[in-house]
Amino acid sequence: MSTLWGISFDAAPISGLVVEFVKTARLFRDRGARVCLDLGYDIKADKNAFFRPYTDERDHLPDWVRLGRVDGIERLDGYTADFVAEILQGVVQGGNKLPQKAETLSEQLKDLLLATWSKMDVTSVIVENGTLPENVIYTKALYLAIDEYGRRNRLGPFVLWRDHDLMWQSEPGTGKYGEFPYPGAIRPRESPFIHYVVQHQDALDHMLDWVPGLPNISVLPNTFSHIPHSGNPRFRQAYGIPGNASLLARCTRIIPQKRIDRDLHLLAALTDRVDAYLFVAGDIGEAPDEYAKLTRLATELGVSERVVFGGKLAPRETVSPTGFSVRDLLAHADIVSFLTSYDYESYGNPIGEAIASGVPYLTSRYELYDTVYGSLGFRAPVLDITTHDLPTEAFVAEVADLLLDERKRGQMAEFNHRLGERHFGRDRAEEALAALLPAPMGERTRMSVVIPVFNEAANLPSALASLYDQRDSGGMPLDRALYEIVLVDNNSTDDTAEVVRAFTAAHPDLAVHLIPEPEQGPACARKTGMDFAAARSRGREDGARFYLVGADADCRVAPDWLGELFATMESSKAAIGVCDYYYAAEHFTHRPRLWTEIQKTLRCRQVTFSLFGGFPDGKGFAVDRDVYEQVGGIEIFYQLSGGRFVNHLSDDWDFGIKVRASGEDIVYAPKSRVEINPRRVNHAIEEVITGRAYGSDGVIVMRDIRVADPVVDLEGDLTEAEALQAWEFSIKDFTPKNVILPVLLTPSLLDDAQVIEFFGPSLAKRLARRIAEITEEMRIVDFTPIHAYKTPSFRLYFEFADEIFARLRATVGEDIGYPPPLPPCLAEVPAERFAEFVHYYCEDRESGEAHNYFGNGGVF
């Protein structure tokens, strides 16, 4: 069972942070997740709760929230509340270097977090207020643990890091956390595993001033279930409040900053006009001096008999079995008061709860009021505390009029309720959460379609539309519960993300996930997407096979592409299914020579793939998830190019080689078709002709083909010489990879009747014998490294080229022709020593001559 792990840096059993966690966690619980919450007793030093056991904290929480702690944290040598407080003091004073003891504790705490999460099978984490530098030891450990846990378990953005309070919001007049730019605090850091959330635009602007360019950060306002409740009918009676009296409700901590004295003055001013009572829900023991001061003031104002200090109530989201909750208070209140101080640092949940409960509210114009509520048009009496510290005569009259006019109260509450549901309703929370943290995979989902994207905003609408409009073998819409789409954004600078978000919003019946991959390169992006999809599909116990499907953003899939690929995999025992590819003829109307050469290559491909299954290509393939993980997934290789390391472009081929070499089968799905974007030829035609389409001298790279090159004549055809040269490079690339490599990796194919028929009995036997000799000679066990499979494939090509081309002419067509001329150096070698010098030629990594001869990739 998956687990949501919550971490509150507040160290309080009941607080705004805990309430918001419970509301968000309910969405995970509805998805079937177990919910655990660490209240942060072992994090925050000033609450005198370090290592204190939990006792009655559970009484204030829903029964589905389990309280948790980090196993073993109390045994960390030197990790004490005093040391944490000492570190915080250093941070406030501007220190930006942690002492070695703190660094060591962070590492040790990171290990404990990892052990706890692994034990609990944690799949999602919510961090509440982790950016505040209350405990930078813990914050640093948390970042380390998130990165390691995310990589180890191949997770996407599994952490929601939500900051309710920030340095510039928390008691700014006191300089509690130092001064901007807060050099000692740990700034939010870029991570593919974290999505940051703040509660309003003002906080977002401040955050980006502090950490410019921070990605994956959003505004997510607090949300509320907009369902009014009748409440416990015994509430008023239990607290001695007459049933016909007007009731003002104040839900707040009883501390000086909350300015409850204003409520007492308001109540006193109302008594001549309205029979009113004030209920204050808060812990009277948190600040005894403030409580004593307020009770004295109530007596001085003559309202002590009308003020109820009711103590802590269970959150609005909780139905308390032993007492009353905020829900009960709001059900009996006529108006909710929030006359807080101007620099109140947070969202104003009491206002939001009043709106959601269908109760009018009154408020002070605290610093963030207009940002959060006022600018959205909510209606309420508002006390301007920039000019008046205590309630004015006009303000008191407005409140009295509202309390005495039930119709006006109802209209205001109804207006605010409708507006609040639109901005802060549960639906808003679910939509935001789905965008930030992907929902668990559907029970019927059998395929994840993984697409690397880099600046593909122009192509994505049509590519996504073609995926949405997939059909089954009967021509009916493919059940969209069968598949999901995983898009891997590889540092796009265009509108890729916006295009994806717009598509997702318009097509809610198809699951679409957008995840980042910071390391540039399609291989890295494909691996990240495949690993993410594999991890999401783990833990399923229905016994059905699950498939990871590769596709490219610039290609268009046929309407039955996915259905045919799925059917082929289901009806076979193969580990990989490979699609058929084609170009649309209308793109080559004025280029008949180029079209002819392309078609010759594709005809060869259809024949050999039908025989051998072929190898996966990023344009379209499927792999069984279990096999993907058994062989270690996609492996990233690096080569030097221009004095720097670049990742290898043949990740799809190399992966197929690993699977084939492990003994697994590959099947060809000829009815599963993908149209190749002609830009792959258009913008690289010179490289195709000269055999440098994917690099040269042994380095496999390719230039960016997204941007049109004005020098290239996209409509011009090849000359006869260029067409011949393009064909020779294409067939030299094709034959070792698609005719020789399959039997090199799986010699048992040479015992298959159809394969024997293709090669002829004599050639099949001699190929089998020669493969065994070369394998023994080279001591090759694992053909994974690219040169390890290239060398023997190239050698076999030279030794058997004439006979293989004869079979291609007989099977595919006479226009396939004869092998291209040998390299000049081999043409002069005596026949009896030909195989010997072919070996030297193909093994020569210094010059890369063999690589250049074979062109390393006709893109046809």
Automatic annotation (TrEMBL):
Keywords: Transferase. It comes from the Bacteria. SUPFAM superfamilies: Nucleotide-diphospho-sugar transferases, UDP-Glycosyltransferase/glycogen phosphorylase. Transmembrane segments: none annotated. Pfam families: Glycos_transf_1, Glycos_transf_2. Residues 234-414 form the Glycosyl transferase family domain. InterPro entries: Glyco_trans_1, Glyco_trans_2-like, Glycosyltransf_2, Nucleotide-diphossugar_trans. The keyword Disulfide bond does not apply. Residues 448-627 form the Glycosyltransferase 2-like domain. The keyword Protein transport does not apply. One of its GO terms (molecular function) is glycosyltransferase activity. This is Glycosyltransferase, GT2 family. The lineage of its organism: Bacteria, Bacillati, Actinomycetota, Actinomycetes, Pseudonocardiales.
